Amino acid sequence: MKDFKYNKGLILVIILGLLAAGWISMVRHTVEENSRRVDMATNYEDLLELADREGLPAEKVLAMAKDAGVTSLAVYDTTFKKLNANGKASAVAGSEILANFHSGSLSDPVWRQLVQEGKIKGNEVYLVGHDASTWQDLKEDVPRRLGSDRVQLLQVGNEEVMAVKAHYESFLKMDIGMPRDEMKAVNDAGFAVIARPTNYNQCTPEDVKAVFKRLEGVKISEFVFSGSQVLGANKALDTTIKELKERNAVMGLIEGVTQLQFYKQDGMEEVAKGIGYNNVVRLYTIPKDEQPKLKIATAVERWANADDERNIRIDLLRIYEKPAPNMTLLETNMKYFKDTHDALAAHGYTMDNELAVGTFASFYPAGFIRAIVMAGVAAAVVLYLSLVIPALNISVKKQWLLWAVFTMLAAVPVLMGNGAKIRVLAALASANIFPTLAVIYQLDRIRYLRDKVTMGFGKMLVTGVLALFVTGALSYIGAFYLSGSLADTEYLLEFQIFRGIKLTFVLPLVLVAIAFLQRYDVFDGRMDDTDGVMNQLQKIMDMPVKIKTLFLMFAVLVAGVVFVARSGHTSGMPVSATELQFRAFLEQAFYARPRTKELLIGHPAFLLAVMAFWRKWPTMVFFGLVLIATIGQGSMVETFAHMRTPFYMSFMRGIGGIVLGAGIGAIAMMLIQLWQTVISRAKERKAA
After folding, report:
1. Mind listing the pLDDT tens digit for each residue in 476-499?
2. Cys bridge to 489: 46, 277, 367, 613, which one at CB 3.0-4.6 A?
3. pTM over 0.85
4. Cβ-contact 345, 351 below 8 angstroms
């Protein structure tokens, strides 16, 4: 069968589903646009280090950082390694005190008396405070960290001394609670605090309450828990949730090293769900080993891209440890802060620690709206099947029966408030079926027009460009459906992700190939005759294969592996410096960088496929170009599977790709036309 009829009723259902999906996407866009406040932060310790390295007062460096646009400073649990260095407290190993006593260098009579009385033990650590606030923090937190049975207060002259049963080197590195004095200094300098507490071993509700009690009166922008556990894991999470909710606090989760989801922390998901996803934001920091390799301009561009494309709302900037050429270290870092602030402002972001960071509003579309989307997806699946199965195409009743079954399976779970897996399947179907239908429609249209229209080169070029735009618009229906199937706050934050991306690079090619073989004979070029899919596949299996054909097939296989592996976050396949420069150019030239597989591969191939059809090139060549063109259409829709990327940005990325790809394809057509003209004239002169 070569002529297939389109069920107009199914098309009407698809249009209704598109309206529902469009409404969901419009609300999603509003939610995304209302979340454009960024907390531009750095570490308080980094600024203190910068001040020390430049020989400047800490207050001056803090003021400069604020003027450069920094809004919050991250404060971590203190350690005795830091306290020994800043002089606010001291930790001395008992073995060192005993050694000094026996060498005669221990001059303080009180300490000597303690040694003589046997109260100093070599396997203990002795703590002395030199700052009242710090000493109070230590007396509260050390017993909680180690247990009161391992801590004893001694009186040494007029001072209190804390004797701790601990390994000295390990104790120096142990977290000992959030320092009040540092948080006060941060607030006094005009910054908000990003609180980064660590969890306690065998954490209890009382431990959690003690942490939050210490934070009372501190202006905190977000909580970003440090280490492999959130505060309260695993037995006191309810207390953590309660304390955060009482403060209407925002929790920041650290983006994973693959720029996908989060750095895993025990209790992370429970706390996020407990406080509400509308109180959760994503944090990104450039890896410590990578930043020194980046020029300031490159790092600044990365921050703009992270906020634009991955919904990052806490930008935690590290300082540069080496100065840029012709600048001091201080000038280097202040330029880095200022340039980042200006770039984010130019992208439309607000940075003000008087405002809350840009969280996403609670966004969960109504079940009946989502059910209409499911019905539309079911109609698209049935429509595709009717366009490749002749027996189904001639039976409208069977089509509606199949649609009813698919709709019931998809819509009922959604209406019942469940259907998480069904929604993923619907998104997968949307990403694959709609680009396929768009290409099939063009295949059927040109078959219909071939004997009715004559095409000169100019008309062919214009027709090809218009057909590409129409096909792109039809593919974009799938983008709306994909968004309508999945969009909610959990997907925007990447607590949930679409896991069928790799499949979407291959499946549309298979689906289009089946439709093509049902319509065309790929062997002898008879473009209006076909033996059907199975007969042609049998012919292909029976074909004798030459060595050069094997080499060609191997090259195609390698190209396919590269095509799939280059997509995603964890392929590990390197990107050349030339391509990186080309990407950087596209970033500057377009609102959103078009994808190279669209503008350099898929869309130019679409126009060449138009040329192949009207110029009656071998059908096998036409077939190959159609499949390559399908890559571009599938990629346009697959872009929307990255739900963390704002809908409008994904939309504009596809528009940029199709416009530039059409231009590149048009140039390719003109070059081929010129080459054919030159060859034709050369043959004419030779014949003459």
Report:
1. 999 999 999 999 999 999 888 888
2. 277
3. no
4. yes
